[in-house]
Write a structure and sequence with these properties.
By secondary structure, the chain is α/β, with parallel strands linked by helices. It has 15 helices and 12 strands. The strands form 2 sheets. The chain has a 7-stranded mixed β-sheet, sandwiched between helices. It has a 5-stranded mixed β-sheet with strand order 1-2-4-3-5.
Length: 433
């Protein structure tokens, strides 16, 4: 049996889900199961890779500025460390769950392996709405959480980074808290820090730049001219805001954008710089001049060349996937497409560039920051950008070639490549004892 025949037979045997999985962790495990089936691994390997290596849930007590005491719950999950220290962001959001953190940690494992970054995957989260807390309260939360998880983290163990609801200031507080406990400054314990505290130039926009590098390559692969192509971006936060700007800079007409409060559309193209100023002054994209209000579902169903879901998990599901008209979907967020929706989009001929490839720019430059901190030698912005572009485009070409060779969708090809690297590392290391 040839490799292609074996792959097609394995795909035919894979479990079919009647409905969308109930949680991001179910989605992540379903993607892993498909890859394990294609690769021909046994159930023991699946179980080893499907379950996190370590999990820690901590109570985070907080004295509010009012004098009241409030108890928050935080998590840190290390999914796999076979290829190196664990790496992953810290999320502050009101709907954080342990299953969500588990899924994000697993996706980080595949992302690091796919981009050949010598890390395993981790993720952290605290169930908190940061908009409802003062800066001093967020500092106290961050420092207490860092203290509670400090036995698990460190530059050679587990390196946190910013995610939803956190930023470079959060990472500075984490670095300082950990350093105070150790008795000396440890710049490599976190990434995404301010440049003046050992952060890397280009880190703040790295994820967005990576998304755009891959998006432009994906459009060209479909024969779509970049200059004049149209795009919709769901989410106008850390990733979506800069991605919209870089897409516009490349000549793409961004016609629709959304955030958690609403969505807007302008068929002639949105002025992204003016929109960013509007968001800075009002806190939302809604009521932006020269744009019409639409729903988030309208945005996802927009008749555009490129759709970039850059917000949260599960926004593209079996219920709305048939309405998506974009030729190319590039996942700026982690897990925005459920497995059932993924199958529907692939069947419809939509090119879906998976999150573990598309949004890997952040972890790549986090790796660059960690390397620079360990060497105490910092690179210029041009060097960071050049190295980032090389890594992203090399990964795109590798995944595309693998997908073409085995007649797989991009997500299955990317996940198989990543899972195989992690499995091989585990097999070579062996089991102890």
């Amino acid at each position: 049996m040839t490799t292609i025949e074996h792959t097609e037979a394995a795909l035919a045997r894979r479990p079919q889900l009647a409905t969308a999985p109930a949680s991001p962790f179910d989605d992540a495990r379903a993607q892993l199961r498909e890859a394990v089936t294609i690769l021909g691994y046994d159930d023991g390997m699946y179980e080893l890779l499907a379950n996190p290596r370590r999990e820690l849930t901590v109570a985070v007590p907080l004295h509010r500025d009012s004098g009241e005491m409030e108890l928050l719950i935080g998590h840190r999950v290390q999914h796999n460390v076979s290829r190196g220290p664990a790496k992953g962001g810290l999320r502050y959001a009101p709907d954080v769950t342990l299953d969500e953190v588990r899924a994000l940690a697993m996706w980080m494992t595949w992302k690091c392996a796919l981009l050949d970054v010598p890390y395993g995957g981790a993720k952290g989260g605290i169930r908190i709405d940061p908009r409802r807390y003062s800066r001093s309260e967020l500092e106290r939360v961050t420092r207490r959480y860092t203290s509670e998880i400090s036995p698990l983290i460190g530059p050679d163990h587990d390196i946190p980074a910013p995610d939803v609801g956190t930023d470079e200031q959060t990472m500075a507080w984490m670095m300082d808290t950990y350093s105070v406990q150790k008795g000396h400054t440890v710049l490599g314990v976190s990434t995404g820090k301010p440049v003046s505290l050992g952060g890397s130039l280009g880190r703040a926009t790295a994820t967005s730049r990576g998304v755009v590098h891959v998006a432009l390559a994906a459009l060209r692969s479909r024969g779509i001219r970049v200059d004049g192509a149209t795009a919709a971006v769901q989410g106008f936060g850390k990733v979506g805001r800069h991605a919209a700007r870089f897409l516009a800079d490349a000549g793409i007409r961004v016609v629709a954008v959304s955030d958690q409060y609403g969505a807007i559309r302008a068929d002639s193209g949105l002025d992204i710089a003016a929109l960013a100023s509007h968001v800075d002054s009002t806190g939302s994209v809604i009521d932006f001049v020269d744009a019409d209000a639409i729903t988030n579902e309208d945005l996802l169903a927009a008749d555009v060349d490129l759709l970039v879901p850059a917000a949260v998990e599960g926004v593209i599901h079996a219920g709305n996937a048939p309405q998506i008209k974009a030729s190319v979907v590039v996942e700026g967020a982690n897990g925005p497409t459920t497995p059932e929706a993924d199958r529907l989009l692939n069947a419809a001929g939509t090119l879906v560039v998976p999150d573990i490839l598309a949004n890997a720019g952040g972890v790549i430059v986090s790796y660059f920051e960690w390397v620079q901190a360990n060497q105490a030698y910092w690179w210029g912005a041009d060097e960071v950008e050049t190295r980032l572009a090389e890594r992203m485009l090399s990964a795109w070409e590798h995944v595309s070639a693998h997908a073409d060779k085995l007649h797989l969708p991009l997500r299955a090809a990317a996940t198989c490549l990543a899972v195989e690297r992690v499995a091989q590392a585990g097999q070579l290391r062996g089991l102890y004892p």
